[in-house]
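Marked as duplicate of an earlier ticket. Keeping the data here for the record.
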Amino acid sequence: MSSVAFETQRAALADVVAIPVTPFAEDGSVAEDTHRALLRRLLDGGITTLTPNGNTGEFYALTPEERRLVTELTIDEAGERAVVLVGVGHDIPTAVASARHARELGAQMVMVHQPVHPYVSQAGWVDYHRAVAEAVPELGVVPYIRNAQLTGARLAELADTCSNVIGVKYAVPDAARFAAFARDAGLERFVWVAGLAEPYAPSYFSAGATGFTSGLVNVAPAVSLNMIEALRSGDYRAAMKVWEQIRRFEELRAANGSADNVTVVKEALASLGLCRREVRPPSRPLPESGRAEVAAIAAGWSI
């Protein structure tokens, strides 16, 4: 893979990295036509980086077949309009197979979900990501870091052997820790994506992030784009105006350990008539009592 191609991928990470929802049909299956319509809405709204099989897409609630389907639908719908960063994870053979499947379909990058295991050593974290990165040397690889114990030196160690590790989705809710981690790993070496979306984007941008992930973007692409435009121009006052606009929506998503993270996004989409509100366990649909507030917020964004 030429450095020119990786530069294209790096540029795609320094943006609003949309995490599309996975809509379900009445029978509980993936609603393919609805999925395509939601993806087109993002693309038409100006979004150019998509992450199928992210957490807002209910990655851990999908079967292997459904994860492949979501990847196929997204890459097909995106065409030349967006760069696709496919979420992969679980055990190493599964993650490697998913990464190779993404490569076969024409994806440009994979995002590696944090290893879900009760016992994660730092050296083992490096080994896990190396196994995935080495299997797809042509693809850009983006570790999704939620482990506050991990040091920046370990990320640098991974990239020393895998030059295709080009970006990081950093999702530890601590701006000071992020600033130190990025500098220990190499601030200019990687593209730093604020992995906790719009609420953390201003503070993480001030410390070196140049992109952020978003689930809210499913509902209001223009709102997310307004924030990144403000951050790119260094206008933190304008960025914080957007922050105030989305604060309550994101507080509802983050409440009770992010119990309703995807639920609130799907509820907003349902209020706009764009997909069904159903989510899969261990998530739950929003109780009737909370639906009006979410609908009012979504309507207030004038989309």
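See parent ticket for discussion. The two ends are 40 Å apart (CA to CA).
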